[in-house]
Amino acid sequence: MYTLNFKALFVKTSVIIFLRAILVYLLATIPAMAAEPIMYFMSAGFALSFGWIAAVLFFFFFYLLQKLPAGLPIKTVLLYLSVAISVVIAFQAMELTGVEQHIWESGAFLLFPAVAIVSGWISLIIGKQKINYIMSFCREPENETNGADLLPSAENIF
């Protein structure tokens, strides 16, 4: 069922979603440069260095969700939730690796993961058509057939 073309489309779509989210994040945080230029460059560096954690987690969630036997609306809501979970885990990784201390008590710095989550959602909205194709491609047929009705009947031939 999963052809090489489908797998390539899945990986390509996941990478494009991530790269687009990073670009939207970098554009959305430009106003921080006016307030504190070093803050913008720090957040950009953190996004590039810890964003891969969110990307890997998102790829994993996306892979699991496309196989989930649920409707497209449920898969879509869970996909948006997976973006938030991935960003929060990547943000927590900054504290676990020792880059920042007490990351959840950092005040205004907490706006950056919120912007990252919204950037991921914007990227999902832009790539909605491909995502829906990937999510609906894996749905199981409504009824199982034994192959007998796959042959055309005499009525349909003439």
Give a quick summary of the entry.
By secondary structure, this protein is an all-alpha fold. Helix content is 73%, strand content 0%.
Arithmetic mean of pLDDT: 82
How many strands? 0
How many structural domains can be distinguished in the coordinates? 1
Helical stretch count? 7
Structural class: mainly alpha
Distance between the termini: 32 Å
The Rg value, from CA coordinates, equals 21 Å
Largest sheet: none
Which regions are unreliable across 5 or more consecutive residues at pLDDT < 50?
140-158
SSE blueprint:
Blueprint: H1 4-28, H2 31-35, H3 37-67, H4 72-96, H5 111-126, H6 128-137, H7 154-157
Care to describe what's here?
This protein has 158 residues and is an all-alpha fold. It has one domain. The chain is built from seven helices and no strands. The radius of gyration is 21 Å and the shape is elongated. Residues 140-158 have low confidence and may be disordered.
